[in-house]
Structures are given as structure tokens and as C-alpha cells.
Amino acid sequence: MGIKILLADDHRLMREGLRSLLEEQPDFTVVGEADNGKTAVQLAADLKPDIIIMDISMPGLNGIDATQQILSICAKSKIIALSMHTERRTVLEMINAGATGYLLKDCAFEEVVQAVRTVASNSTYLSPKIAEIVIKDYVHRIPKDELSSLSSLTTREREVLQLLSEGKKTKEIADMLRVSVKTAESYRQHIMEKLNIHSIAELTKYAIREGITSL
Questions:
Q1: DSSP string, 112-124
Q2: What is the distance between the alpha carbons of residues 112 and 97, in angstroms, rounded to a whole number?
Q3: Helices and strands, number each (H, E), in the chain
Q4: Mapping DSSP to helix (H, G, I), strand (E, B) and coil, where does residue 78 land?
Q5: What is residue 141's predicted lDDT score, i.e. its pLDDT?
Q6: For 72-85, how does the pLDDT look when each residue is reduced to its tens digit (9 = 90+)?
Q7: Are 18 and 80 part of one and the same domain?
Q8: Which of 36, 115, 147, 178 is in Cβ range 3.0-4.6 Å of 125 for a Cys bridge?
């Protein structure tokens, strides 16, 4: 049957380039493309791909949270991050979310093929620079309080945080999540209380710093 691949990246040129190169491999089939995290989750549920090549910075729902949601409904799918991000915290968040591969966007195409084959065989593939970050974390470990504020948020609260930081109004968020305006306001209030942040501007700064959004 070969390896079924889903591409998730908000840059069309990146997706088209990857598709063209991947489909040169006789056993690779690109079954779908997503330009945001929400669509990636929907397509993963529908298409059940073997491998998802996932950008981290995408609108609406970032790659970290999309990874968590996909693996909760498609446990057999494997996710490879393909990103420009090399910040320690972002890398570790993606690995902790369940990604079994992490590539940098400046890697050679041959490395993408190698990563797909490695991850498809139930192994982990990390670019050398990413592997160094993960190994250092294993040796030193992150102090618990370094991730405590972000880890205190639920999956839905993280989603609302990203939408708020991207400039969405409460009613827009309510419509997108199919909840009442009152529920959306409640999410916002809980987020601010948990993070001890009291303005949208500060929430936006926090979301950028934590890799929730790239805006």
C-alpha cells in the first residue's frame, strides 16, 4: 500500500514543493494538504494517514496543539515536525505533544525522505540540532516551574489563547468553537486567571514567547 502522507503547512509553495518531491518516491502517496491546524485535524480523522508532516506556526490552531488533538483520535498516525523553530521550549513542547520526528526547514530533501521512512518504521528521527536540544534536556531536565504556567491550561484554553492572540474577538471565537459567547468569555477569564495576565496585549506577548503563535 505504501506510506500515506498528509502535509500541514500554511505556505502553499512549501506544500506544493514537498508534494512534488515526496511523490517521486514510488511508495509515498500524499493523500491531503492542510493550510492550518484545524484542517489538519479534520483531514487526519478522515484520511487516517501514516505520516503527517506538520508545521508548528499555523493560524487558528498551531502545530503543537494540532498534534495533541490528532494523536487523541488517530493514535496510529506518526507526526514529523517541519519547522524553522529551534527554541528549546518549542522543540520540547512539540516532542511532548507526541511528535516522533523533528526536521528543520533548511534541511536537504533527502533528510525528509529519511525521516519519513524512519518514523514509518516506528523509530524516532530528529535533525542533529534538535537531537542536541533533546539530549541536553534529558541530561539537565527543565525546572518544573519553567513549563508550569502553560501546562496549567487545558487543550481548549490553549486554543482560545491562540485565537485571542491572533486578534479574534470573543464572538468570533464562540462561532469558531461552536460555543456560546458566555462560554468563550469564561475561557478567556480562566486563561487570564491561570496565567496571571490581565490584558489581551500581554496575552499576545505571552503566546508569542511560548510558541503558541508566531504573530
A1: HHHHHHHHHTT--
A2: 20
A3: 11, 6
A4: strand
A5: 62
A6: 999 999 999 999 88
A7: yes
A8: 115
